[in-house]
Amino acid sequence: MVDSLKKPELEELRPGIKRPAQDTILTPRFYTTDFEEMAQMDISANEDELRAILEEFRTDYNRHHFVRTEEFNQSWDQIDGETRQLFIEFLERSCTAEFSGFLLYKELSRKLKDRSPVLAECFLLMSRDEARHAGFLNKAMADFGLQLDLGFLTESKNYTFFKPKFIFYATYLSEKIGYWRYITIYRHLEAHPEHRIYPIFRFFENWCQDENRHGDFFDAIMRSQPQFLNDWKARLWSRFFLLSVFATMYLNDIQRSGFYASLGLDARDYDIHVIRKTNETAGRVFPLILNVDHPKFFELMDEAAAANLKLMEANNSTASKPIKTLRQLPHIAKIAVNMLRLYLMKPIDTARLEGSVR
């Protein structure tokens, strides 16, 4: 395992307010979409399941869950140095991702209210969940002397436009991989409570069920739109989004292996487990999944992660910008080539899997 890189000091917009992380290909993204196309979707092919999911959202199983306990009311100065910085980064990235979901789902609920009331209410209630998550994470950051200005984040972030089907691919995988990330950490810390360095991890069991329900909603939407799943383009895009989500997580987590070490986890082993579980879950709806058991799959991921660490070293150096760029190019090329090799690796056709649920 390569040690985490030493990070530059955390910057503040003003006292106590952290400057948002600079946008890169690996940072959480904010999305917008074609709201008119979304409003015109006919969900009748799977409306019963969508209405059942809506009833689950209305039940609001976690309405009393995200309440800070007395355990939070203490100094956290014992979490210091690089571990403290990595932990703040973890909270920031998680908060940003949850807040991104809140903004997208809230806007979708507003735009669909008069055109597709079932979808509009589902999006509204999912935005409620994401707002709770983001708020809880932002309060956790405050325990370490920093918070995000979510209003500033709304205005300053770049928004990526995706057509509805790509929104569904991306958000489905985001929610499902979120489930597997949270539940894996929770189960690990249940078995090894000596590594539970902060009480937020006690909340992850219920938290991940929100993520799972949101993923089920996008699963149901995609199966109401067979044109999103059953042509040759869907087979290519399924591979693309799976690889994008897995590679983003893998490169980020290897870069921050020190954070996982502080929890008693090996970042590589953790990511392999989460990727395998998410890939298996995606096989219930996607026409293709990645062959993550191919002997070259994680070897190529490891090489890309190592190149990413060297890329970060070059970026954090004191060299001039042209020199930095020259030093970065071979590592960018290495990552790109490995991603292409992973994409071209023969996938698994889920229609041929015994017991596949489609």
From TrEMBL:
<keyword id="KW-0479">Metal-binding</keyword>
<keyword id="KW-0149">Chlorophyll biosynthesis</keyword>
<feature type="domain" description="Rubrerythrin diiron-binding">
    <location>
        <begin position="89"/>
        <end position="221"/>
    </location>
</feature>
<dbReference type="GO" id="GO:0005506">
    <property type="term" value="F:iron ion binding"/>
</dbReference>
<dbReference type="Pfam" id="PF02915">
    <property type="entry name" value="Rubrerythrin"/>
</dbReference>
<dbReference type="InterPro" id="IPR003251">
    <property type="entry name" value="Rr_diiron-bd_dom"/>
</dbReference>
<dbReference type="InterPro" id="IPR009078">
    <property type="entry name" value="Ferritin-like_SF"/>
</dbReference>
<comment type="function">
    <text>Catalyzes the formation of the isocyclic ring in chlorophyll biosynthesis. Mediates the cyclase reaction, which results in the formation of divinylprotochlorophyllide (Pchlide) characteristic of all chlorophylls from magnesium-protoporphyrin IX 13-monomethyl ester (MgPMME).</text>
</comment>
<dbReference type="GO" id="GO:0036068">
    <property type="term" value="P:light-independent chlorophyll biosynthetic process"/>
</dbReference>
<dbReference type="GO" id="GO:0015979">
    <property type="term" value="P:photosynthesis"/>
</dbReference>
<keyword id="KW-0408">Iron</keyword>
<comment type="similarity">
    <text>Belongs to the AcsF family.</text>
</comment>
<dbReference type="InterPro" id="IPR008434">
    <property type="entry name" value="AcsF"/>
</dbReference>
<keyword id="KW-0521">NADP</keyword>
<comment type="pathway">
    <text>Porphyrin-containing compound metabolism; chlorophyll biosynthesis (light-independent).</text>
</comment>
<keyword id="KW-0602">Photosynthesis</keyword>
<dbReference type="GO" id="GO:0048529">
    <property type="term" value="F:magnesium-protoporphyrin IX monomethyl ester (oxidative) cyclase activity"/>
</dbReference>
<keyword id="KW-0560">Oxidoreductase</keyword>
<protein>
    <recommendedName>
        <fullName>Magnesium-protoporphyrin IX monomethyl ester [oxidative] cyclase</fullName>
        <ecNumber>1.14.13.81</ecNumber>
    </recommendedName>
</protein>
